[in-house]
Design brief:
CATH superfamily of the largest domain: Metal-dependent hydrolases
CATH class of the largest domain: Alpha Beta
CATH topology of the largest domain: TIM Barrel
Largest sheet: 16 strands, mixed
Strand order of the largest sheet: 1-10-11-12-13-14-15-16-2-3-4-5-6-7-8-9
Number of helices: 17
Helix content: 25-40%
CATH architecture of the largest domain: Alpha-Beta Barrel
């Protein structure tokens, strides 16, 4: 379900006077798209005379782009015209064009249109990784290695390493560059000596694939060191007890709010909580006057995919101190969990779900099984490595679901995830799931058997979008499904924010989740916020929006009947979380109930409520300070002033800057000598 902010904005064209032409010659270059060891697609770049062609496609989990690009270029590869067409990640049609005449670049797409004569790069909305080599080449040849972007922003490049790669008896040097200014973390790109693309993200030159894992280790190690420097500079560990006073405390256990409250922290623990006048303050304590701001436990996002160190940092600056990672590379996840725990890297408390799928053309990359013995080995491995849950995916063999649940129980793991193909949500609830991800599966449960055989494809989103509006929230089937969830104590991880984007987003319009942050985001992320959803015209948009409104009614009904809700996003880390909670409010869930779900309720589900999830004596010091009253207006959670995790205080302004985000104006910076209100 993950909306892809990392793959849809690769095309770059330049309006600069370059120092030298690209040296690579006419011809065709081929690349493989590889995800976790599996070849899932290809990239082809062809140059002939003054024409440049690119074809980029991959398919994974029933989704993937198929994009063709053609440009007419001059001897400097300057595009005098270009056209992009094909299908987006969500299989919606795309078409984009640019013309250059009399010194003016004019572009047109469903997301952006305009013109400019300034010296700058223009980013089309949809294209291929091939165009990153154009940006890299232009930046390398620029005297300052830095160029402005259109419609806004600035990019610069830095060479950081060289590595020798091998292909049989053939050997060559490739250079590692980091491109800054496009997204939260620098773009990692490997170039051949003539500045042609060798590898970027999941793309690598055909025939040289065996070098991919080693090059990734090199770049990961380098970025890891940079991220450790950010952590060291952006974190303060107090030497003395710290008193937070004159705050409004939300007691999430009792769902009450108390004014003029103090919280005393010593080391990584909360040692005392009470009225300002009742706290015995140690003489050595540092005191922070909260001036009526709201004290809350750190927030929980119960559906994330931590794909980079920056993802961890983005959660922290948005007040999310605990997350459930719903599937990724096991070795990387374990290393990251350790580094987040020690403070070597900045990130939330990490609870891990191992994603297990079947073996089929529609499978996602990950842990794949086709037999009981493979399943047993996989779950045993996850348990031995301290995982908290198994997550079954859409192509998981339905006949193995009972065994998967049984093995999870054997090792004390939670079981849940997607509803596997050829099954209904009611089926997995009866078989022992602890939680079900994505509320579209609730809708699919209400439709005919012909739908269930397609739920490992885009049909699992398209069918609910098209047919959900016709569903009666009071129908017997709905009542039966809600009653089953309640009877078996199965929680819903609805990811409403991603469904809202898929069902209601329109190209060219900023998604509701990011409207409040739009001006603070890096260029590529901001542009992705206007990339649209499943609808390809206004009629579909209206229909899909009506279906989403039915989803909201169903969610409210489920909660009213006592079904547990686990707030999770499955989208852009940190920044879309508050919208998830706002949607709960729109579904009719009271604000204090929403705050409990986002904190103690999630901790209870993960069996961690004895040490995190509430601001109480003896709990670990995972605390956020909010400028406003989220108990009255959930949207106030966007105004995070201070974040404390495990007793560590974070410099939110400095950390925001490190990931290319303009900092919030109300942040409180804590230093060992005291607190400074910015």
């Amino acid at each position: 379900m993950m909306r892809v902010y990392n793959v849809i904005l690769f095309a770059i064209f330049f309006l600069v006077n370059t120092h030298a032409a690209f040296s690579f010659e006419d011809g065709k270059r081929e690349y493989q798209v590889i995800r976790q060891g599996d070849v899932i697609g290809s990239l082809v770049i062809t140059r002939s005379d003054n024409n440049l062609f690119s074809h980029y496609q991959y398919s994974n989990n029933g989704r993937g782009p198929n994009i063709k690009f053609h440009a007419q270029v001059d001897s400097m590869l300057f595009p005098t015209t270009f056209e992009i067409e094909g299908l987006s990640l969500l299989q919606t049609p795309i078409k984009e064009s640019v013309t250059y005449k009399d010194g003016v670049l004019e572009w047109r797409s469903r997301v952006e249109s305009g013109k400019s004569a300034k010296r700058a790069f223009y980013f089309p909305t949809h294209s291929t990784p091939a165009h990153l080599e154009m940006l890299a080449g232009a930046l390398i040849r620029d005297a300052d290695a830095s160029l402005p972007l259109l419609p806004n922003g600035q990019a610069y490049i830095k060479k950081v390493a060289s590595e020798r790669v091998n292909n049989g008896n053939e050997s060559k040097l490739v250079d590692l560059y980091l491109i800054y200014g496009l997204q939260f973390s620098p773009v990692v790109i490997w170039l051949n000596k003539e500045q042609s693309l060798f590898a970027v993200d999941e793309v690598i030159e055909r025939g040289w694939e065996e070098n991919g894992s080693r090059l990734k280790r090199v770049s990961d190690d380098l970025l890891g060191k940079l991220d450790q420097e950010i952590a060291e500079k952006g974190t303060t560990v107090p030497e003395n007890p710290v008193l937070l006073f004159n705050g409004r405390l939300v007691d999430v256990r009792k769902k009450q709010v108390h004014a003029n409250m103090s919280v005393l922290i010593d080391g990584n623990r909360i040692v005392e909580v009470g009225p300002d006048s009742a706290i015995e303050v140690p003489k050595t304590a540092q005191k922070i006057n909260l001036k009526g701001s709201t004290i809350l436990p750190g927030l929980w996002d119960m559906h994330v995919h931590i794909r980079s160190n920056a993802d961890g940092l983005l959660n922290i600056i948005n007040g999310i101190t605990s997350v459930r990672d719903m599937g990724g590379d096991v070795v990387t996840a374990l290393a990251r969990r350790h580094q987040f725990s020690t403070g070597d890297l900045i990130g939330p408390r990490l609870f891990l779900a191992g994603l297990i799928d079947g073996v089929s053309p529609t499978s996602t990359s990950g842990l794949s099984v086709s037999s009981y013995s493979e399943l047993d080995r996989t779950i045993t491995m996850l348990a031995e490595n301290g995982y908290d849950q198994i997550k079954l995916y859409s192509s998981f063999p339905s006949e193995l679901v009972p065994s998967a649940v049984s093995l999870a129980r054997k090792y004390g793991l939670l079981a849940g995830g997607h509803v596997p193909v050829n099954m209904r949500q009611d089926d997995v609830v009866k078989l022992g799931y602890d939680n079900v991800s994505h509320f579209n599966f609730f809708l699919l449960n209400q439709f005919g058997d012909e739908v269930q055989s397609k739920t490992n494809t885009l049909a699992r989103m398209l069918v609910p979008a098209r047919r959900g509006r016709d569903l009666d929230p009071s129908s017997p089937g709905v009542k039966r499904s809600i009653a089953l969830l309640k009877k078996h104590n199965v929680a819903l991880d609805p990811t409403m924010v991603v469904l809202e984007a898929l069902f209601t987003a329109k190209e060219g319009r900023v998604s509701p989740a990011l409207q409040s942050y739009y001006d603070r985001l890096p260029f590529r992320i901001a542009l992705a916020a206007k990339s649209g959803g499943l609808a390809i015209n206004d009629i579909e948009l209206q229909q899909y929006t009506e279906s989403f409104n039915v989803l909201l009614k169903l969610l409210g009904k489920a909660y009213e009947e006592g079904v547990n809700i686990l707030p999770g996003t499955d989208v852009l880390p940190g920044f879309e979380y508050v919208r998830e909670l706002e949607l709960y409010k729109e579904a009719g869930i009271p604000n204090l109930d929403v705050l409990r779900l986002a904190t103690l309720g999630s901790a209870e589900h993960m069996k961690a409520d004895t040490y995190v999830g509430a601001v109480e004596p003896g709990m670990l010091a995972d605390i956020i300070i909010v400028d406003g009253r989220p108990d009255e207006d959930i949207s106030a959670l966007r105004h995070i002033q201070m974040v404390i995790k495990d007793g560590k205080f974070f410099d939110l302004a400095k950390l925001s800057k490190s990931v290319g985000v303009l900092p919030a104006l109300n942040a409180i910076n804590f230093t060992k000598s005291g607190a400074i209100n910015n």
